[in-house]
Please model this.
Amino acid sequence: MAADYSTTETSTSGRGSGTEALRQSAREYMAKGKEKALELEEGFEGVIQEHPIRSILIAAGVGALIGALICRR
Model:
């Protein structure tokens, strides 16, 4: 027995259109966020390819810092 919630949204005193607008807005923000994440990823890849040793040293330093903070507890 599957419930049909699509009619409930639109029949409750006009709130359905607001819900749909909110969903559409969330979809747009999510699409923009994905685009921005892809741009950042491409930028990071370029920096890593230009400076591989520096990137490895930074990653090792961050790992050591996190390890030191975890062991302190």
User: Anything to note?
Assistant: The helical segments are 6-11, 15-50, 52-72. Residues 7-12 have pLDDT under 50 and may be disordered. Residues 35 and 43 are 13 Å apart (CA to CA).
